[in-house]
Write a structure and sequence with these properties.
With 215 residues, the protein is of the alpha/beta class. The protein has 7 helices and 12 strands. 27% of the residues lie in helices and 31% in strands.
């Protein structure tokens, strides 16, 4: 079996007295395995830290199966926008986040309007990347009239392009950003874009430096 075998797997657990059900890929896929093994949220420490900021509008860029968006919904965020271009991930995202306030978009975000495709990484569907093709649309975040106060960006080395396409939104609303970088080169490029806007930066956990908070 691979991580997108089509089986309807569900992980069930209690979170602060609430019953949570998350549709996942099968047991061999990395993110699904963590959720199903530990019966909790993927990246739970990060989510618990972010909960204190009580975002009114959360934008989830690289939403995967909707783990982060569902967490914020259950913690009272009223407006959520989730962008996930990989079609197998997006099917689960829609199952996990069917509530009316939710907005899901099967598009990639970047710095230009064009057609792209997404690859598939059955053992880690969070590692899917933009490739050449024409079955998925790429747009700019600035094309949407959103007023975010928290944005998560996990886009497999596309974070610079995503931010370039979101500069007007960032200048106008100055949301807190949580960005995952695969290496220091991508971190430095991102910070050079954000520093002129007044953003300060710190790693979420020093031992796991790849996740940075910009505020």
């Amino acid at each position: 079996m691979d991580g997108i075998s089509g089986e309807d797997m569900k992980s069930r657990f209690l979170y602060e007295g609430k019953k949570v059900v998350i549709h996942t890929h099968d047991e061999n896929e990395y993110i699904s395995k963590i959720i199903n093994t530990f019966h909790t949220w993927y990246e739970a420490p990060l989510l618990e830290y972010l909960k204190q900021f009580k975002p009114k509008c959360f934008v989830d860029i690289g939403a995967n199966i909707g783990n982060h968006s569902l967490f914020f919904y259950l913690n009272g965020t009223k407006e959520i926008h989730a962008f996930e271009p990989q079609k197998d991930n997006f099917k689960l995202l829609e199952l996990n986040c069917p509530f009316p306030e939710y907005n899901t978009y099967n598009v990639a975000l970047g710095n230009e309007l064009k057609e792209i495709s997404m690859d598939s990484q059955p053992l880690n569907m969070g590692a899917c990347r933009v490739v050449e093709g024409n079955n998925t649309e790429m747009r700019l975040l600035d094309m949407y009239t959103l007023k975010p106060d928290l944005i998560k960006i996990d886009v497999e080395d596309m974070e610079v392009e995503v931010i370039e396409g979101a500069m007007e939104t960032l200048k106008k609303h100055h949301p807190r950003l949580i960005v995952e970088h695969s290496d220091l080169q991508h971190f430095y490029k991102t910070f050079r874009l954000l520093e002129p806007l007044g953003y300060k930066v710190k790693p979420f956990v020093k031992e796991h430096w790849e996740v940075f908070e910009y505020a």
